[in-house]
Amino acid sequence: MKKKLTVIALAACLVAVIGFATGCGSKQKSALDDGVLQIGTNAEYTPFEYKDKNNKLVGFDVDLGRALAKKMGVKAKWTNTSFDGIFNGLNSGQYECIIAGVSNTDKRQKSFAMSDSYLGNGVVIVSPAGGAQATDIKQLDGKKVGVQLETTADYAAKAFKKDGNKMTLKEFDSMIDAFTALRGGQIDYIMTDEPVANFYVAQQPNTYKVSSSTLSNEPVAVVCRKQDTALRDKINDALKALKKDGTYGKLTKKWFGKDLTRQKINNKIKTYD
Fold this sequence. Notes:
Elements: H1 8-23, E1 36-41, E2 44-45, E3 49-51, E4 57-58, H2 60-71, E5 75-80, H3 86-91, E6 97-103, H4 106-111, E7 112-114, E8 123-128, E9 144-148, H5 152-162, E10 168-172, H6 175-184, E11 189-193, H7 194-203, E12 208-210, E13 220-225, H8 229-244, H9 247-256
Parallel strand pairs: 1-5, 1-6, 9-10, 9-11
Antiparallel strand pairs: 2-3, 3-4, 6-13, 7-13, 8-11, 8-12
């Protein structure tokens, strides 16, 4: 799903310098010491995280984040931010981890402490249910294709264009806007994560249809700062516990219609960037 790694290295260096300066002569507090798990997210990615009609933060990731915090004996506190700045926000200390449908890519594993993947995922094509069905990338040639800005689908589409595909790329701030544009005929197709696509198709099966197989393999994980391996390990332990006690299965059934506790997640990453 989502990815953006510009200026991260510079931000990380700045955080390290600031952390060293402020830490001299005083004991640095560790994550969770205040009884809170500070989580960054981007509430524009239904069904992972979004605002409902009452402006309440909801979604699979939101429920999962709260369950993880509870399992670790703390409370979850959320910071909603734009996705193109979410990684810099993590490195600058605005929150302690990111739970936002983030793809567990090779690049991210080099720059961050990534949790175990908690959901299988890949990019698919969504077509109008009553229109021409695009089953592969070649059939997007010359078409208007919608993606969410700075997601792995966005990067994949740009890679395909670089390789010669003549699609017209339309970047949206949220998937809600992209699906609205597809319904209204402003675009011809959408590229997005499979769980996102399946959610919208389930809501309006006469309007949308997933028309391709997965074009990539990019399972979803929690993101921590590179140095915060202790927090990452606690999150991994909590994830295992949630699967064991049945909480994870209940959440996936609530949001995706099936218990994915025993889902075999392919961790052989395949992305286009």
